[in-house]
Design a protein that fits this description.
2 domains, 5 strands, alpha+beta, rod-shaped, 3-stranded antiparallel sheet
Length: about 130
């Protein structure tokens, strides 16, 4: 049981241990140094190993967010960030006609224009 437990502990990636709230090194030391009557091996095999398996299955279902495959198996990670390279759709100053706004649909300029109310001079009333 000592050898089987030790091999199983060593082959599991560190992220599984962290997400299960366990310390991999601690369990290796328990199995190797204090393996009296195979008690640490049995505790690992019937208790801790179940937690690690549950973490791996939940991670593969996406419970911890996106991830990727590594040499050690599936590893949680960040999703690729998409950066917006163009301005959002909206009214922008028309470069060809001062005092006019043109609609940008997010991909191209349209034929729709609008007179910019901010560029119209305000009339003042004499006092």
């Amino acid at each position: 049981m000592l050898v089987v437990s030790l091999v199983d502990i060593v082959k599991r990636p560190d992220w599984e241990w962290k997400l299960a709230g366990q310390e991999k090194i601690l369990w290796i030391l328990l199995i190797v140094l204090i393996n009296v009557l195979a008690i640490p091996s049995l505790i690992y095999w019937f208790n801790i190993r179940k937690k690690l398996i549950a973490v791996r299955e939940a991670a593969q279902r996406g419970a911890y967010g996106p991830g990727h495959m590594t040499y050690a198996g599936w590893e949680p990670g960040f999703a690729p960030t998409s950066y917006q390279t163009t301005p959002p759709a909206g009214w922008y100053p028309d470069a060809t006609t001062p005092g006019q706004l043109r609609w940008w649909d997010g991909t191209q300029w349209t034929e729709h224009t609008w007179r910019d109310p901010a560029s119209t001079p305000q009339q003042t009333t004499p006092t």
